[in-house]
Specification:
Layout: H1 2-21, E1 31-42, H2 47-55, E2 64-75, E3 79-90, E4 101-119, E5 123-126, E6 129-141, H3 148-153, E7 161-180, E8 187-201, E9 208-210, E10 213-215, E11 225-236
Antiparallel strand pairs: 1-2, 1-11, 2-3, 3-4, 4-5, 4-6, 5-7, 6-7, 7-8, 8-11, 9-10
Length: 247
């Protein structure tokens, strides 16, 4: 049902954008900039996985997740698009150095874009629609202190366990850009940009895999959730030499 709702939303947004595109057909002036975002979300759907790690005497990763997103923004008066590079991390804090802990992080590439519903001197209101390919790693390890003799006698006992899974996540939502005049000699425009999007994996059940093994009894990672994103978009002036590679 959630898949159908998301796909219906994406189709509706595309139809709105297609209707808007006709008034934009004579405008072929695009500007390009670079963006940096902080993206935050919770992982409430992973209670089963966290409980299983606890039963295995592993301190699970927390439900809070943060992404660093670097993007290349291209836009016209009616449309925008972004190519995304995503670095993901979930926290795990403990003062016990001998406790085994699970760290969750990820890396991905993706794209999003869509129509601008509002574009005036101070504001953009957009409908971002896109997809990300993500590779996730769960690293189970401890930071215990041991003697050299202990390590040599049983090296496998101190090796980290690394498990991997991957997915393609569709996303759609709403975005707002506030246009600022920041360092006008350097930038044509700077946006304070925010988005609220829902992400939905589409590849179904993805088991955790290690080196030459597949783990059958560990719950899959569930990342279907709402993400909040905030950051800055910088559009440099054409004469800035350090940005000439973007034009």
């Amino acid at each position: 049902m959630r898949h159908k709702l998301l796909l219906s939303f994406l189709f509706s947004a595309f139809c709105i954008g297609a209707a808007s595109a006709q008034s934009d057909s004579t405008v072929r002036i695009f500007k390009t900039g670079m963006a940096i975002y902080a993206e935050f979300g919770l992982l409430p759907n992973n209670k089963a996985l966290r409980d299983e790690l606890s039963r295995l005497q592993v301190k699970p990763f927390t439900s809070f997740m943060g992404n660093l997103v670097l993007a290349r923004r291209t836009e016209s008066d009616k449309w925008f698009s972004e190519a995304r590079l995503i670095l993901m991390n979930s926290t795990n804090y403990t003062s016990d150095r001998n406790e085994r802990k699970a760290y969750l992080n990820g890396f991905g590439v993706g794209t999003d874009g869509g129509p601008k519903l509002v574009n005036n001197a101070r504001w953009n209101v957009t409908i971002p629609i896109g997809a990300d390919f993500m590779l996730y790693r769960m690293n189970i390890k401890s930071n215990s202190s041991v003697t050299a003799q202990q390590l040599l006698n049983n090296p496998s006992a101190y090796q980290a366990v690394k498990l991997y899974t991957a997915n393609i996540n569709l996303h759609g939502g709403i975005g707002v850009d506030y246009k600022m005049d920041f360092l006008p000699k350097i930038h044509e425009k700077v946006y304070l940009s925010g988005k609220l999007t829902y992400h939905q994996p589409i590849l179904g059940r993805r088991k955790w895999k290690g080196d030459n093994v597949t783990v059958d009894d560990l719950s899959r990672l569930k990342v279907n959730q709402i993400y909040a994103q905030i950051g800055f978009v910088f559009f440099p002036r054409p004469h800035m030499k350090k940005w000439t590679g973007m034009h």
